[in-house]
Design brief:
The protein has two helices and seven strands, in the order αββββββαβ. Helix content is 17%, strand content 25%. It is α+β, with helices and mostly antiparallel strands. It has a domain of 61 residues.
C-alpha cells in the first residue's frame, strides 16, 4: 500500500495523455511474454525496443507505439486543450 504522502503527490500530478488524431488508434496493455516491438526507434539507437508485459501502448493498424515514442513523435500530448489548437493536416 502506498503512503498517503505519495498518493497526494500523484493526485497533484496530471499524468493523463491525449491522442491528437484518435481515428484508428487503440490503447492496449501488453499481456503476454511474446516478443513485440515498438514501431519506432529511440534517438541514437539502431534497433527497435521491446514492449514488456503490463506496458500500455498504442496500436494503429499493425503498428505498435510505446507511450514515450508516441509523445516524442507528436501522436500523444500532455496538453489537455490540444483540441483547441489542432495540428495542420
Amino acid at each position: 500500500m502506498r503512503p498517503k504522502k505519495q498518493i497526494s503527490a500523484i493526485k497533484e500530478q496530471d499524468a493523463r495523455l491525449y491522442v491528437l488524431q484518435p481515428d484508428g488508434m487503440e490503447a492496449r496493455v501488453k499481456s503476454g511474454w511474446e516478443k513485440e516491438y515498438c514501431h519506432l526507434q529511440n534517438p541514437g539507437e539502431d534497433y527497435f525496443h521491446l514492449l514488456v508485459k503490463g506496458e500500455v501502448y498504442l496500436l494503429h493498424g499493425n503498428e505498435k507505439y510505446c507511450l514515450r515514442c508516441a509523445v516524442r513523435q507528436g501522436i500523444l500530448t500532455h496538453e489537455r486543450l490540444s483540441w483547441q489548437h489542432p495540428a495542420p493536416a
